[in-house]
User: Fold this.
Amino acid sequence: MDVRLHRQLWSAVEATPNHRLAHLDDSGVLQWLIDLLQADPTFDTRNVPIVSSYILTRMPLIRDIAQQA
Assistant:
């Protein structure tokens, strides 16, 4: 995953209200973030499989961020 994709993803995580992430299961968090990314006109939808895989590997970190803020 390139730097631009990382920035897009983590910006989406930070922009999401923490209570939203905390109340979703893993598949819900994945879908929420993918939907946010796809709403960005600069996001290339061919990157969905790569980003999805990355999100799943980083789910514990995403959950930690949601709980801390």
The longest helix spans residues 26-39. The mean pLDDT is 92. The helical segments are 3-15, 18-22, 26-39, 48-57, 59-68. The radius of gyration is 11 Å.
